[in-house]
Every structure is written in C-alpha cells, then in structure tokens.
Automatic annotation (TrEMBL):
<dbReference type="GO" id="GO:0034453">
    <property type="term" value="P:microtubule anchoring"/>
</dbReference>
<dbReference type="InterPro" id="IPR025486">
    <property type="entry name" value="DUF4378"/>
</dbReference>
<dbReference type="GO" id="GO:0008017">
    <property type="term" value="F:microtubule binding"/>
</dbReference>
<dbReference type="GO" id="GO:0005813">
    <property type="term" value="C:centrosome"/>
</dbReference>
<feature type="region of interest" description="Disordered">
    <location>
        <begin position="83"/>
        <end position="111"/>
    </location>
</feature>
<dbReference type="Pfam" id="PF14309">
    <property type="entry name" value="DUF4378"/>
</dbReference>
<protein>
    <submittedName>
        <fullName>CEP350</fullName>
    </submittedName>
</protein>
<dbReference type="InterPro" id="IPR028750">
    <property type="entry name" value="CEP350/CC187"/>
</dbReference>
<feature type="compositionally biased region" description="Basic residues">
    <location>
        <begin position="93"/>
        <end position="103"/>
    </location>
</feature>
<feature type="domain" description="DUF4378">
    <location>
        <begin position="58"/>
        <end position="187"/>
    </location>
</feature>
Length: 205
C-alpha cells in the first residue's frame, strides 16, 4: 500500500517557518541597531545550517527556500521602517501613510515587538495560515476567482487612505498663497521706494 503522506523537502510547518523568520529579524535588527541601511543587509554564512549545504537536491531546495524567506522578511521589515529614511523638510507637514503590517503611529521599537509582525506577514504571504489547501488540484474556478477578488479588495483598502489624503493639495495651496503674499509685499516695496524717490526728486527741484 502506497502511503498518501506528502514529503516536503523544505520547511512547510508554520512554527518552523516562524523560527527561520525570527532569525532573519534578528539579522536585520542588528544591522538597524548599528545604523546600517536595511537595503544593504546580506545573508550571513551562519544563516544556513549543515543540512542546507550538503549539495544534494533536498539541501539545495532548503537553501533556496530559506533565501526566499530571508527576502520576504527583509521586504516586510524595509516596508515597516521606510518612513524613517524619508524625513520631510521642516516646513512640510508629514504625510499620513497607511501601514498594513502594524497598527499605531510609529513602527515597533524592539525586536520582540517586530518579530511576530514579520512572522505573521510572511506566514500570510506563503498561505500557511490555513487560507490555502495542500491539494492544489481541488481548486475550482470559483475559488480562484474568490482569491483574486480578495487580493483586489485588500489592494483597494491599502489605496483608500491615499484617495482621501489632501496633504499634497494643502501644501500646493500654501505654497501658492506664499508666492502671492511675497509678490504683494515686493510690489508694495517697489511702490514705496518709487514714492520716496519721487519725493526726494521734487524736493531738489
């Protein structure tokens, strides 16, 4: 009798993936703590275990998958802290941006708070939260359509705050008003100087 158990060459359990992602978060956190750009973080040698570098097919599969996890987690972390690298000028009002990974006005300030956020984001991306079934052959056209609809709805929710964000319009109006006031002051100054000049000229005559 042939066993129906599936063999997975790469980590497929949620807890195992969470453990690997936790290691990735620590790598990025150490770089951030030392003030290094998050875009320059590279995979260290000790990220891969001996099982990942044996050279056989399973090892190569694990190494590729762990590289994927590193890239996914890194993308989430960079997205969380991207506003820190985009400081607006003092005269510009900070933009209100929708953050899909965490709630609150500021990003996590400790690795302990950051880790579960990144873990959940990666789990959701890989579909290990129970939203996908192992047997892909059971997917119907209806299920595929629902999945696409869910993605579109999520994208619309992320874009919605931008539709009602008037920060750029407000800044444009302020700049236009500033230019108008400056022109008026400049015009008044020129007229005043002309009057003074004409008065001095008439007194000389």
């Amino acid at each position: 009798m042939v066993s129906e158990d599936l063999y997975y060459a790469v980590p497929h359990e949620s807890e195992e993936v969470r453990g690997i992602v936790a290691d990735v978060v620590e790598i990025y956190w150490q770089s951030r703590r030392h003030g290094e750009p998050l875009d320059n973080v590279q995979i260290p040698d000790n990220y891969f275990s001996k099982e990942d570098i044996n050279g056989d097919l399973d090892s190569n599969s694990r190494r590729v998958f762990k590289t994927l996890l590193f890239d996914l987690a890194g993308e989430v972390i960079r997205d969380i802290y991207k506003d820190e690298e985009e400081e607006p000028p003092p005269w510009q009002k900070p933009k209100r941006r929708h953050q899909k990974h965490f709630r609150g006005a500021s990003p996590p300030t400790t690795m302990e708070n950051l880790t579960p956020i990144v873990q959940q984001a990666v789990i959701n991306t890989l579909g290990l939260n129970g939203s996908r079934k192992a047997d892909r052959n059971k997917w119907t056209v209806r299920k595929r359509k629902d999945h696409v609809d869910n993605i579109l709805v999520e994208e619309l929710r992320e874009e919605e705050p931008r539709w009602i964000n008037y920060d750029e319009d407000e800044l444009a109006v302020k700049m236009q008003l500033t230019d108008t006031i400056f022109d008026m002051l400049l015009n008044d100054t020129v007229q005043t100087m002309n009057k003074v000049y004409q008065k001095k000229k008439s007194n000389r005559v």
